[in-house]
Amino acid sequence: MKTPTKRATSCLAAVLAILAATSCVWAADVGASAEVPALIPAPREIVLTGGTCAHAAKPKIERVAGIPPEGYELSVKPESVTIRASDDAGEFYARQTLEQLKDGASIPCCEIKDSPRFKWRGVMIDDVRHFLGKETVKRTIDEMARYKLNVFHWHLTDNEAWRFQVPGYPKITEKGDCYTKDDIREVVEYAAKRNIRIVPEVDFPGHFRKLSSTYPEFTCTADNPRDKGRAPMCVGNPDAVKFVEAALDTVCDLFPESKVIHIGGDECWRYGWKKCEKCKAMMKREGIADVKDLQAWITRHAVNYLAAKGCRAIGWDEMLDAKEGYLPASAMGMRWHSEGAERTARAAAAGHEIVNSHKRFCYFDYSQSLEGDNHRYFGNGRNPVTLEKAYSFDPLAELPPESQQKVVGGQCNNWTEVTYNGKDFEWKLWPRGFAMAEVLWTYPDPKKRDFADFKRRVAIHRDAMVARGINAAPVN
Ligand code: ACM
Ligand code: ZN
After folding, report:
1. The pTM is what?
2. How far does the chain reach from its first CA to its final CA, in angstroms?
3. How far is 373 from 89, CA to CA, in rounded Å?
4. b/e for 126-138, b at 16 or more Cβ within 10 A?
5. Angle 278-282-286 from CA coordinates, rounded to 5°
6. Mutate to test the pocket of ligand 1, among 316, 356, 361 (most ligand atoms within 8 A of CB)
7. CA separation for the pair 21, 445 (Å, rounded)
8. Which residue's CA is minimally distant from atom 2 of ligand 1?
9. Of 270, 298, 372, 397, whose CA is between 20 and 30 Å from 68?
10. How far is the CA of 235 from the centre of ligand 2 (A)?
11. Beta partners for 366?
C-alpha cells in the first residue's frame, strides 16, 4: 500500500520525516521511482533496496533464534521473499507487513527488521452497556491483527448485564443477550489464529448491580434505594464469594489460552460495606479496620484463586490500593484515571506490571472533535480525544524510570453507554485505533512524533478499511 504521490522529492521528505520520527533506517539511494510504503505501524527499520518483486512469490520461512518475540525480518528481493522469525507471531506479523506493502501486482524490494516496543497492545470492548455481538467482535479482531494489536479485553459483566452463563446461577443471564459457550469458543479460536489473546473481564466488587436484581443476597443490603443501586458485592457473604469463584472458574474454562483474567476492581462504592452487618462482622473477624482493606481482601482472594488455576489477574488501578506487600506482585494493574500517575508509580514500585489506558488519551468513548459528527459521545464533547491526542499518548509519561520498566503496554477502551451498535463502535474506534497500534508497536519518540506524516498514512489505511466494509470515521 503506497502513498498516492509519485514524486521523488516528496518521497524523500517523507523518508526523512519518518526517519526522524521512528528511528527507521532507510537506504540513501532510494531510486527515483521508489515510493514510501505507507505502513502502520511504522517498522523499526526499513531499507528500500530498489526494484520490485511479484507478490505472487511465496515467502520462504526461516525460524531464527534471537529475533525478539513477535518480531521478524522481512527480505523482499526481485526474485524472492524471505521471512525470518523466532516464533509464529513474528511470522504472522511479517505477513501483515507484506500485505500492506502490496501495490497492485508487486511489492517494493526492501529489508525490514521489526519488533514491538510493548508486549500488551490492547483494545477493550464494553459488550455490556450495549451488546455488540459476535460479528462486530470478529471484525474488530480482523482489523486489530492487521495493525499488530494483540490483546482483546472483553468487558463482559457490569451493573446492567452479564454476557456469559455461570453454571448454577441461571438468573443472571435470564434476561438480555448473552454469549453461549459455543459462541465464546468460536471467538477464542478466531482470535488465536490472529495472534490475539482475549482477556475476559469479570468486574467486582463494584459494578455489581446486576446481582442486586437477581441474587440480592450477593450484594450488601441497604435501606436507601439510592444506595441499593450502587450496592457492592457483599464480601461478608461466603455465598457471594462462591459465586465470584464460579464466575472465575467459568472464564478460565471458556478462555483456556488467556492466562490473564481481568477482575475489574474499579469504582467500588466501599461506603456500602460500612452499613452491612455481614461485611462489618467479617471485617471484625479478619481484623480489617478500613473498607479499603476489605477490597484488598477480596482482590487478594481472587488473585490467589486464579494463580492456583495457572492464571494471572489484572484489574483497574484502584484494585491495587493495598498495604505494601499484601497483594501478590503477580497481579497487574490497568491505569485509567487521568490523575493516577502516583498510584501507578506506587503499584510499579511494589512489583506490579502496568498496562496504561490513561483516559485522556485512550478512552475512545470521548469525542473525536469531527466536524458535523452527530454520534453521541461520553462527556458531550468535553475532554475530546482527537486522533492527534491519541497519537501523542506516551504510556511511560509521568513515571520515574524504575516504574517505566514495569509498563508492559497500553490499550484503548471503548465504553458503550452511548455507543449503540457495531457501526457506531467502529466509527469511534477507527481511525484512533491506528494511533494506538503505532504508539504501542513502534513507540516513536514522544518528543519527535510526526503527526503530519502519521495522518498521511492513516488517510490511506482508513480508506482501505472503509473499502473492507468497516465504518471508520474520517481523518480530522
Ligand atoms: C473505568 O473507566 N471505570 C475503568
Ligand atoms: Zn455486605
Report:
1. 0.93
2. 21
3. 38
4. bbbbbbbeeebbe
5. 175
6. 316
7. 6
8. 336
9. 397
10. 6
11. 378
Residue 373 region, left (φ>0) first, then alpha (ψ -120 to 50), else beta? beta
Cα 70 → chain centroid:
17
**Residue 234 CA to ligand 2 centre (angstroms):** 3
3-state secondary structure of 156: coil
Active site residue 337: no
Closest CA to 205 of 322, 302, 324: 302
Instruction: Evaluate the CA torsion angle 438, 440, 444, 447 in order and state its sign.
Output: positive
Domains in the chain, please, with CATH? 6-114 (3.30.379.10), 120-467 (3.20.20.80)
pLDDT tens over the chain, length 476 residues: 654 333 333 333 344 344 433 333 433 333 334 466 899 999 999 999 999 998 777 999 999 999 999 999 999 999 999 999 999 999 999 999 999 999 888 999 999 999 999 999 999 999 999 999 999 999 999 999 999 999 999 999 999 999 999 999 999 999 999 999 999 999 999 999 999 999 999 999 999 999 988 999 999 976 666 676 788 999 999 999 999 999 999 999 999 999 999 999 999 999 999 999 999 999 999 999 999 999 999 999 999 999 999 999 999 999 999 999 999 999 999 999 999 899 999 999 999 999 999 999 999 999 999 999 999 999 999 999 999 999 999 999 999 999 999 999 999 999 999 999 999 999 999 999 999 999 999 999 999 999 999 999 999 999 999 999 999 999 98
Q: Angle at which helices 422-429 and 133-146 pack, to 10 degrees?
A: 20
- The runs of H, that is alpha helices, within 291-335 are 291-308
| 127 is annotated as an active-site residue | no
